[in-house]
UniProtKB/TrEMBL annotation:
Residues 8-122 form the Response regulatory domain. One of its GO terms (biological process) is phosphorelay signal transduction system. It comes from Roseovarius faecimaris. Signal peptide: none annotated. The modification 4-aspartylphosphate is found at residue 57. The keyword Phosphoprotein applies. This is Response regulator. The keyword Phosphoprotein applies.
C-alpha cells in the first residue's frame, strides 16, 4: 500500500511510548516526509501548514495526554489527527471524539491499516479544503483559455499572502489549447488509461503534470478522441477528482460546447466565471448559461460574468452598463481590458501576459476581478 503523493507527517511520541512503534512503518516510504517531535517541541513545530496529518502515539489517556491533545487542536484545529494507543475505555474514546480525531488505531500497529488511515485522512481533509474554480467559455473565441491561463499565473504569483499550490486543468480535449498558449504541449497518451480509468491515482497525476515557471501545475492534453470514447466520461471525472485532491486551488478551462460531464463539473465547483464578449449573440448565450448554472446550483450560487476584450470608448460603450444590468439582473459582471498586441505576443511566444509586460491593463483588471470572487472559503488576503 502506498501513501498519497507528497504526504508530510508529524509524529508526536508522548511519554512512555517507543519511538519506532509508528515510525518503523513510515521511514521507508519514498513519498513520505516524517518529522518526529516530543510534546515539549510542540509550540515551535506545530502550525496549520506544518503537516498534512498529525499522528500522536499515546501510552495512556490521562491528564497529561488530555493536555497534549488540547494543545494540538489549539495550534492546528483543521489538520487531520490520528491517535495510536493500546486499548482505550469508553470514557477515553469519548475524549477522542471531543478533539475531532480523524482515526484511532490500536497497538500493535498494522502497517497497511496505518497507511490506509493516513491516506483517508489526508484525502478527506483535502476534499473539504481544496477549491475548484471553473472558467467557462460562453461562445467560441471569447478568450476563456487566455483568461484561465492568466488566472492560474496570477494566483500562483501574487494573489495570496501564503504561497498557494495552484493547478490549471484544461478540459477542452479537442484542442488542448492551454498547452499551446504556454508552449508546453504534452506528449502524454491518455488513451493508455481510457480502458481502465480506475488506474488514475496521485502517482499517475504526478507523472502527467507539468510545472510552469510561474509556479502552477498544468494539465492540458490534445486528445479529441476522448469525446467519443466509451469510458471518456469516467476518465475525465476520475482525472478531475485526482487533480483537485492534489492542489489547494484548481482552475478549470471549460469549453463552450456540450460534453457528457459538463453538468457534473458545474455542479461541483466552488466558483464559476463565465467568459463572454460584448455583443448581443454572445450575451444571449451567456444568459442561457447563467440560467443553467443557477438551475444546477440554486439562485444563491455566486456565478459571475467576465466580459473579455473590452475596449474604452470616448463617449460610451455600444452596449452600456445600464443595459447590461437590465440583462443580468442580480448576476455580477466585470470587464477585462482588451490589449490585442499584448495577448497576441504572449500567445506567439508561449508566455503569460505579465511576462511580456508587468504593468499591463489586462492583468491589472483580471487581478482586480479575482480579488472580488470567493477563491477561498476564508479570507486569505
Amino acid at each position: 500500500m502506498k501513501l498519497s503523493n507528497k504526504t508530510n507527517i508529524l509524529l508526536i511520541n508522548a511519554e512512555g511510548t517507543h519511538q519506532d512503534d509508528v515510525a518503523a512503518h513510515l521511514t521507508s516510504k519514498a513519498n513520505c516526509t516524517l518529522n518526529r517531535i516530543t510534546p515539549d517541541q510542540l509550540p515551535d513545530q506545530l502550525s496549520e501548514d506544518a503537516a498534512d496529518v498529525v499522528i500522536i502515539d499515546l501510552s495512556k489517556l490521562e491528564n497529561e495526554e488530555d493536555r497534549l491533545l488540547s494543545e494540538v487542536r489549539g495550534q492546528a484545529p483543521s489538520i487531520p489527527l490520528i491517535v495510536v494507543s493500546h486499548e482505550l475505555g469508553s470514557e477515553a474514546m469519548r475524549k477522542l471524539f471531543k478533539y475531532n480525531v480523524e482515526d484511532w488505531l490500536n497497538k500493535p500497529i498494522n502497517g497497511e491499516e496505518l497507511i490506509n488511515a493516513i491516506n483517508a485522512s489526508v484525502r478527506s481533509n483535502k476534499a473539504s479544503h481544496n477549491r475548484v474554480h471553473a472558467v467557462v467559455s460562453c461562445v467560441g473565441g471569447a478568450g476563456a483559455s487566455t483568461i484561465a491561463v492568466s488566472m492560474a499565473g496570477i494566483a500562483a504569483s501574487n494573489l495570496f499572502r501564503k504561497k498557494a499550490d495552484i493547478a490549471l486543468f484544461d478540459l477542452d480535449f479537442s484542442t488542448g489549447n492551454c498547452s499551446y498558449l504556454l508552449n508546453m504541449v504534452s506528449d502524454v497518451n491518455l488513451g493508455n488509461v481510457v480502458s481502465s480509468p480506475r488506474r488514475i491515482d496521485s502517482e499517475f497525476i504526478s507523472v502527467i503534470q507539468q510545472r510552469h515557471d510561474a509556479g502552477f501545475f498544468l494539465y492540458s492534453f490534445k486528445r479529441p478522441e476522448l469525446s467519443t470514447e466509451m469510458n471518456g466520461y469516467e476518465l475525465v471525472l476520475r482525472l478531475l477528482d485526482a487533480v483537485t485532491l492534489e492542489h489547494r486551488h484548481t482552475f478549470l478551462d471549460l469549453p463552450y460546447y456540450e460534453t457528457d460531464w459538463k453538468d457534473e463539473v458545474l455542479s461541483a465547483v466552488n466558483t464559476c466565471t463565465l467568459v463572454t464578449e460584448l455583443n448581443l449573440p454572445a450575451l444571449k448565450h451567456t444568459l442561457d448559461l447563467v440560467t443553467r448554472v443557477k438551475g444546477l446550483r440554486g439562485e444563491s450560487f455566486p456565478v459571475r460574468v467576465l466580459i473579455n476584450k473590452s475596449t474604452r470608448s470616448l463617449f460610451s460603450q455600444r452596449i452600456g452598463k445600464r443595459k447590461l444590468k437590465e440583462l443580468f439582473d442580480d448576476t455580477p459582471f466585470s470587464f477585462v481590458s482588451f490589449d490585442p498586441g499584448l495577448i497576441g505576443e504572449a500567445a506567439d511566444r508561449g508566455m503569460l501576459p505579465d511576462e511580456i509586460s508587468k504593468r499591463n491593463s489586462f492583468t491589472k483588471s483580471l487581478t482586480k476581478y479575482m480579488k472580488t470572487i470567493e477563491l477561498n472559503a476564508e479570507a486569505e488576503r
